[in-house]
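Note to self: user wants both folds in one dump. Writing first protein now.
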Amino acid sequence: MPPVDQPNLKAFALNCSLRKSSSDEKSSTDRMIMDLFEAMRPHGISGEIERVADHDVKPGVLSDMGPGDAWPALRSRILTADIFILGTPIWLGHPSSIAQRVMERLDAFLSEVDDRNRMPAVGKVALVAVVGNEDGAHASHAACFQALNDVGFTIPPNSGIYWVGEAMQGTNYVDLEQTPDALASSLRTAASKAAHLARLLKVDRFPGTD
C-alpha cells in the first residue's frame, strides 16, 4: 500500500488497438493494460482506460483540430492523470497506426509551454505496454518512449512492458490462461517504479527555465 501520508494516484490508459470495443474479438492490449492496473492497485493507483478507435480522433498536430474532434477530451484526461499508459499492438514490426496518431496529437505539447517553458506533460509519468505475436516490441518501445519524452513525459526505469508470442502463430496474449511469470514480474516492477516517481514529481515538479 502507499505510504499513509501520500495521496492516491490516477492512471489513464489509451488502448491503440485497431479494433473498436464493439468488435467481437477481445483485445490483448486491453488485457495487458488491465494486468498493469492490477499491479498498480497495491500502490494506491486507480486506472481508467479508453480505446482510441471508439473516438473520432482527427489527424493533425494540434490539440484541437476543430468540430467533431474527440482528441481534446482524451487530452484532458491524460493531463488530469498522474501516470499515462500508451498501449499498442505490434503491426508489421511497429506500433499501430492509431498509436502513431496519438503521438502526433501529443506533438502539440511542444508549443504549449507555460511561463517557465514547461510543456503540459512535464511532471507526468508515462509507461508503454506492447503486445503482439511477431518481433518488434523493443522497436515499438523505442519509438513510443522517444516521442513521449520529447513532449515532456518522464519515463521510469524498467517501464517497457511487453508480451510477444511465437511468430506466425494464432495464440494472442488475451488467449493465455495466466500471465507468464516473467511478465508478471515486469508488471510489478513497472508499477512500483511508476508509483514512486509519480509521487516524487507530484510533490516536487520539475523546475522551469526563464
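First done. Writing the second protein, which came from a different request thread.
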Amino acid sequence: MATATQRTKVHTVTGGDGLRLHVREWGDPGGPPILFIHGWSQNHLCWAAQYESALADEFRLIAFDLRGHGMSEAPLEPEHYTDGRLWADDLAAIIEHLALDRSVLVGWSYGAFVICDYVRAHGEDRIGAINFVEGVVKLGSAAFGTLIGPGFLDHFAGATADDLPTNIATMRSFVRACLATPLPTADMETAVCWNMAVPARVRANLAAREIDDDDVLRTLTVPVLVTHGRADTVALPAMAEHILATCPVAKASWYDGVGHAPHLEDPERFNREIAALTTRLRV
C-alpha cells in the first residue's frame, strides 16, 4: 500500500480577500470527500492520525491551514480575521477549487466557527454532513467560564503576549491541557511546533470576534455528529450539550476520559465513526 506521503497532493487556493491558503489532500481521489478543519493555533498536521490511517484507502481526505496558520498566508492586521464572511469564503474557495461534492466537514474546536460561517454565507447544498469535534459555537464574555474553560482561558494571555519565551512556555502548557492522556513524546513535540507556527497577534485576532452560532445550528438539516470528550477543559462538555439542545439534527458521541482532542487521543474510534458517518451518506 502506498504511504500517505506518496499520495499527498498540495494546492494553493485563493480565499477571502485574496489570501493564499495551503491545502493538502490524501487518499482515493474518487472516494467520498472528508474535509478537515483544524482549530485555534493548529494546522493540518493535527490530522495525521486520520490521513495516515486506513481512511486514506477509501476516502478522499482534505485538510488545510486556516488563514494565519501553518503554511497559509498570515497577515497580522485584525481585519483579516474578524470578518466571518472571509472565513466562509475561504472554505467556499476550497470546496470550489477541489470540486468537492457533499463533503463531510470535520471541524475541531475553532473549526466549528468556520463551518457555521460557511453555512451562514453559502448554505448547506455542498455539504453531506458535519462533525463538530470539541466544536466551539459561542465566543465572548458570556461563554467564558460557562462554555469555554480554564484549558483555554488560563493560557490566552501568555499565548498572545509579545514575548517569545512566554509564548513557548504557554503553548507547551496549552498542548498538555488539551489532552487527558499525553501523547508519545515525539507527537507532543510536533504539536508544540505546529502551535508555535502561528504568530501571537494572529491568535489574539481570532479571539477578538464575538460569535453566536445558534442561528445556524437551529437551521441545519444535514446530519450533525457532536464528538466531545467528557474530560475537556478547553471547550467544556456544556458546549456540546448546548449544540445538542440547539441543533435539532445533532447526535452525540461522548468520549469518557478524553480531553480536547479525541482524534488524537482515541484515533481508532474516531476514524471508525467518521468513516461510518461518511459511508451512510452514500447509501
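Dump finished. Worth passing along: Strands lie at 9-14, 20-27, 33-37, 60-64, 103-108, 127-133, 138-139, 211-212, 224-229, 250-255.
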